[in-house]
UniProtKB/TrEMBL annotation:
The keyword Transferase applies. CDD domains: PNP-EcPNPII_like (cd09009). This is purine-nucleoside phosphorylase. Its EC number is 2.4.2.1. It comes from Takifugu rubripes (Japanese pufferfish). Pathway: Purine metabolism; purine nucleoside salvage. The keyword Nucleus does not apply. One of its GO terms (cellular component) is cytoplasm.
Length: 197
């Protein structure tokens, strides 16, 4: 296993599919065990254990005291998964990040603005979501936000492309079914977790 430049959706799906095919356990909770805390995984009953080196596309633990094992099992009857060893940016792994930046709108960003935002670390730009998330947190709500990336930001002065609302609406339509399924699944899982609380 070599550290890739980045992990694509396909890489991650291959890893997940492989793991799911190896065990019937479907974890509700994931626990990442840091230095010296790998023993937490020993609390799991009915363990199914994988060494990181045997898992397709999986990074390797390099830090002393990180066993490099993925442990499935149950904790107090609830299906869980423990990572005995985690990964750090200083080990050379790419950060799987997505920074959403909000601007006031209603006009789309200029090319100069897109370039500036990109340099500042933004991966996506929009005109919503952040305000709602801030307000909801202010009210003490737990927040999960999900943004569909509907169009590419135009970064090139030579480009003939221009962000437009028709494309945004079309992509929304194209992905509606997947989003409906994703959101329903998330809602079901939230109810499920709350039942255990
Ligand atoms: O409400 P959202 O964030 O989906 O709406 C976006 C922002 C603008 O109103 C419009 C741009 O196409 O879509
Ligand atoms: O390109 C965009 N910019 C800002 N807001 C947006 N909402 C959808 N697409 C965009």
């Amino acid at each position: 296993n070599q550290t890739p430049e980045c992990y694509s959706y396909e890489d991650c799906k291959a890893t997940a599919d492989w793991l799911l095919s190896q065990t019937d356990i479907r974890p509700l909770v994931g626990i990442v065990c840091g230095s010296g805390l790998g023993g937490l995984a020993n609390m799991l009953k009915d363990q199914v254990v994988f060494n990181y080196k045997d898992i397709p596309n999986f990074p390797q633990s390099t830090v002393h005291g990180h066993a490099g094992r993925l442990v499935f099992g149950t904790l107090k009857g609830r299906p869980c998964i423990c990572m005995q060893g985690r990964f750090h940016i200083y080990e050379g792994y790419p950060l799987q990040k997505g920074v959403y930046c909000v601007l006031g709108g209603p006009s789309f960003e200029t090319i100069a603005e897109c370039r500036m935002l990109h340099r500042m670390g933004a991966d996506a730009v929009g005109m919503s979501t952040v305000h709602e998330a801030i307000t909801a947190r202010h009210c003490g709500m737990r927040v999960f936000a999900l943004s569909l990336i509907t169009n590419q930001a135009v970064m090139d002065y030579e480009s003939k492309e221009k962000a437009n609302h028709e494309e945004v609406l079309q992509t929304g339509k194209d992905r509606a079914m997947q989003l409906e399924q994703l959101v329903s699944t998330i809602v079901i899982r939230i109810e499920h977790s709350n039942n255990y609380a």
